[in-house]
Amino acid sequence: MSLIRRLEQRLESLLDGVVGSVFRGQLHPSELAQRIIRQADLDGVELVHGGMRVPNRYVLAVNPADLGGEPPPPALRIELARMVEELAFERGWRLDGPAEVVVITNPAAPHGNPKCDGQFVDGPRNPWARLVGETTYEVTVNRAVIGRNPDADVAIGGEHVSRRHAMMWRQDDRVLVQDLGSSNGTRVDGVLLDQKPTEVSLPCTLAFGDVRFLLQWSE
């Protein structure tokens, strides 16, 4: 089932099946979702090691007539933000802060064609995985860079850990790890990786140089 259809079904459930009556004008929630996706593609920035960084905050300006004169229901922005999070993990996008969608009404917005502004806003994110070793590290962003550099997304110590050692991300229901040309290599369950994305199954053992962790889903 497509992400857009899942969004529609969740909204219909949350709004007791009244999506059609709330959106009595020319606009439907799926069109708002498509507008956000289009803006993410337009504003996305290519990352050094591959993949895209996209805005995590979207402000939709909708003509009041497209909402039938009613204020946008709170469930709408919540479900649209949830969609952004799911889409990021589906497409392998990086979000630097929590997904947020704001829906405002603006009479100047064209009928049936909401304006959308994508914004990059840093902020705390919920972890999706963790590295468990002598110290436990939470993995919060997608396409997380792991290494000795203090500015790495997951900054780990170790004499044999490179400053930018490896990258880890979710995409298409998979978890992938890629060595970033480290001096001492990255191993998954003892197997040395090359510098291509490698799918891993959680839980598994990850070693960056001689520093080992158990990679597992965050609870």
Features:
4 helices, 219 residues, 5-stranded mixed β-sheet, alpha+beta, 6-stranded antiparallel β-sheet, elongated
Give an overview in words.
The protein has 219 residues and is an alpha+beta fold. 22% of the residues lie in helices and 31% in strands. The strands form four sheets. Strands 7-6-16-15-12-13 form a six-stranded antiparallel sheet, with no helix packed on it. A five-stranded mixed sheet has the order 9-8-10-11-14. A three-stranded mixed sheet has the order 4-3-5, covered by helices on one side. The chain is elongated and about 60 Å long. The protein starts with a helix and ends with a strand. 33% of the residues are buried. The model has no long low-confidence stretch (mean pLDDT 90).
The gist of it:
This protein is of the alpha+beta class. 22% of the residues lie in helices and 31% in strands.
State the major sheet: 6 strands, antiparallel
**What is the beta-strand fraction?**
25-35%
Order of strands, main sheet, comes to 7-6-16-15-12-13
Terminal CA distance reads 26 Å
Shape: elongated
Structural class: alpha+beta
The overall strand count is 16
Count of helix runs? 4
Roughly how much helix do the residues carry, as a percent range? Answer: 10-25%
